[in-house]
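ok so dumb question maybe but i'm new to this and my supervisor (M.) told me to 'just get the structure for CRISPR type III-B/RAMP module-associated protein Cmr5' and walked off. so i did the thing. is this what she meant?? sequence i used:
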Amino acid sequence: MSNSTERNLDRLAAEYAQNIIKRTKDKKASDIDNTITKALGVLQENGVYACFLYLLAREKENGSVVVEEMLNVLNGLGFGWGKPADKRPEKVLAHVSDKVTADLERLLLAKETLEQMLIYARYGAKARE
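this is what came out, is it supposed to look like this??
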């Protein structure tokens, strides 16, 4: 990926939204749509950390794919956040808290990008129905 591609946040959001749809192709589209819609609501109302917390606590079956792709899109923003060492909820939440929420401007950009990704994934799930 070139630098200009990495900074195209809309493309980044679309790419990882497509990954969610591809990785959940064996699951019922309406269940994926439901998980993503709820996650999007939590993200918009309560923020990035709350969205991760919700997915890890309440959407255990379908939420893990969404969490992984959310971490991938955040890593793709180019801030050097990396990804947590493992997928355990406490490690993921510590990573989000330590890396993503530390700088307000970057947090707002991350929230906007995640929101766009979830919107694309939501409509991707609807298109699959």
